[in-house]
C-alpha cells in the first residue's frame, strides 16, 4: 500500500478465544512473576473504573507523533471486537491523544481496551466507565490531526515492546504484552502460582505459615 502520511499494515490474526478467556481470570502480577519480573510497562496508569476481570486482547498497534491522533483515529478501522489498541505517542503529554469521545467509540466497536504512551483527557468521564484506558498522563489540551504515523508496526509503550498480534493484558497493577506462542505455558505456570499463594493465605489464617525461608534469604545477603 502506498505510504502517504500513514503507513497501514493489515492486523495480525486474533488470539484464540480460549486463551483470552483464561487470561481474564489471572491477575497481571501472577503472569509477571512467571516472566522473570522484568516484563511489562512502566509509568502507564489505569484511568478507568476498576473491574473484576483482567483485560486481555490482541494488539493492534499505532505509532503516532506526540499529541497527534490522526493515525489512532484511522487505526480504529483496523480493530476488531476483542482487540486492544496500543498507541505509541512517544511518551509526550503536552497534548492529549485520546479523550472521552474516542474512548467511548473504541468501546462501541468492541475493542477491549486502549493503551497509550501519551496523554488522555476527560478523565472524570473515563473514570465513570469500566472500559480499560491506560495512559502516561493527563492534559486538557486537545490533539492535532496532522500525522504522520504507522499502523501495525512494532511499538514501545512504557518501555514495553508490543508487536502486532501480541497478547496485551492489564489490570490495576499495570500492563504486560507477550507472544501468543508463550500463552499456554504461561497460563499453566500462573495458575500453579495462584494455587501456591492460596495455600500460603490458608496457612496464615491457621497460624502455621512457615517463615524459615527468611533464614536462607538472610544468609545469602552480601552485606
Report the major sheet: 10 strands, mixed
Low-pLDDT residue spans:
none
The chain-level mean pLDDT equals 96
Strand content: 25-35%
Judged by helices, strands and strand pairing, the structural class is: alpha/beta
Q: What is the general shape? A: elongated
User: What is the H/E order?
Assistant: EHHEEHEEHEHEEEEEEHH
The number of helical runs is 7
How does this model look, in words?
- It is built from seven helices and twelve strands.
- The strands form two sheets. Strands 1, 2, 3, 4, 5, 6, 7, 8, 11 and 12 form a ten-stranded mixed beta sheet that branches.
- The mean pLDDT is 96.
- The chain has 223 residues and is of the alpha/beta class.
- Strand 11 and strand 12 form a beta hairpin.
Quickly describe the structure.
The chain contains seven helices and twelve strands. The protein has helices spanning 17-23, 28-32, 70-75, 100-108, 123-127, 183-205, 213-219, and strands at 6-8, 45-46, 55-64, 83-88, 96-98, 113-120, 133-138, 149-151, 155-157, 160-162, 167-171, 174-178. The model has no long low-confidence stretch (mean pLDDT 96).
Tags for this model:
223 residues; single chain; alpha/beta; ten-stranded mixed beta sheet; elongated; two-stranded antiparallel ribbon; 7 helices
Give the secondary structure arrangement, pairings included:
Elements: E1 6-8, H1 17-23, H2 28-32, E2 45-46, E3 55-64, H3 70-75, E4 83-88, E5 96-98, H4 100-108, E6 113-120, H5 123-127, E7 133-138, E8 149-151, E9 155-157, E10 160-162, E11 167-171, E12 174-178, H6 183-205, H7 213-219
Parallel strand pairs: 1-8, 3-4, 4-6, 5-6, 6-7
Antiparallel strand pairs: 2-7, 3-8, 3-11, 9-10, 11-12
